[in-house]
Amino acid sequence: MAINSIWVFAQTAGGAPTTGTLELLTKARSLSSNVSAFIGGDASAVAGALGEYGATKVYATGDLAGKLPGPAVSAAMKAVIDGGDSPSVIMFPQNYEGRDVMARLSVKLNRTVLTNNTDIADSADGVVATTPIFGGNTLVNTAFTGEGPHLVSFRPKSFAAESASGAAASVVAASVPDTGAAGAARVTAVHVEESTGPKLDEANIVVSGGRGLGEAGSYSLVEDLAKLLKGAPGASRAIVDAGWVPYSYQVGQTGKVVKPAVYIAAGISGATQHMVGMKGSKNIIAINKDKEAPIFGVADLGIVGDVHKVLPQLIELLKSRG
């Protein structure tokens, strides 16, 4: 067994840990009883929630005063490790901030990273990460060699977030050393996109539209159906690239990975890039007039028909039932 302790790079949104953070903590505590979270910022408001999901300690940098997390947090992590508290594994979310901190820490520690993973195990061969390749059709298991800490990042929804009902984690200050020119950049403003309803990557029901809708105006059918189902609207890359909807709606390998209870694909043919982001859904319903569309290969229920006829009927039926 190679894992004695694990750190999780923790992120917050709206004053609470992100779902991705809770997912990583859930997996971490299944591998080690010594789990710590490492956060860029003040941890006093989230120590309870982080402890509930398995963290026994939280390293916190304190207010970064507009500093970019990448240089600051990676430098703080390096300082704690140099001070003698070195974990076996550090887990990161596969997002912009997670990749930034991990890459910088990799250089500081001269350690290899494994990215875009969906699982991790502690085996006789060492720490083994599982990575999907070829659009998720093949899984590759890769074992780390050499000295840790081993740096690993994970796709969203790789693990289910489950509370451990633990006590609040103790908070330990992690000072940020001078980062030189790398720390000169400052965050001057943060803009949050306005949205209603559940977030796309957290919704229990997702309705996505694709090029089969024909035109941007028809996307309103997707939004109407998603609203009636109390779900979130999504999209294929094709209509995002066409400018019909914002990038934040995109489901797929270069968009968001979703695993809802129900995923409705309307007018989506099922390119590999898109299916990587949604094929883990519990129930997939596909609507497409092309009966040979690849999306039917992963669908639990397939409707061969024109989305312009099928979606309005579904919407009217739901409205009639209140």
Please give a structural write-up.
By secondary structure, this protein is α/β, with parallel strands linked by helices. It contains 8 helices and 17 strands. The protein has helices at 19-31, 47-52, 69-82, 96-109, 219-228, 237-241, 272-276, 307-320; strands at residues 6-10, 12-13, 16-17, 35-39, 57-60, 89-93, 113-117, 119-123, 126-133, 138-143, 150-154, 170-173, 205-209, 232-235, 262-266, 283-288, 301-304. The strands form 4 sheets. The chain has a 7-stranded parallel beta sheet, with helices on both faces. It has a 5-stranded parallel beta sheet with strand order 14-13-15-16-17. The protein is elongated, with a radius of gyration of 21 Å. The model has no long low-confidence stretch (mean pLDDT 92).
Key structural traits:
single chain; 322 residues; alpha/beta; seven-stranded parallel β-sheet; five-stranded parallel β-sheet; 8 helices; 17 strands; 25% strand; elongated
Mean of pLDDT? 92
| Unreliable runs | none
Topology pattern, helix = H, strand = E: EEEHEHEHEHEEEEEEEHEHEHEEH
What would you call the structural class? Answer: alpha/beta
Largest sheet at a glance? 7 strands, parallel
**Number of DSSP E strands:** 17
Query: β content, as a range?
Result: 15-25%
Task: Describe the strand arrangement of the main beta sheet, using strand numbers.
Answer: 7-11-6-1-4-5-12
Shape: elongated
Gap from first CA to last CA? 56 Å
Radius of gyration: 21 Å
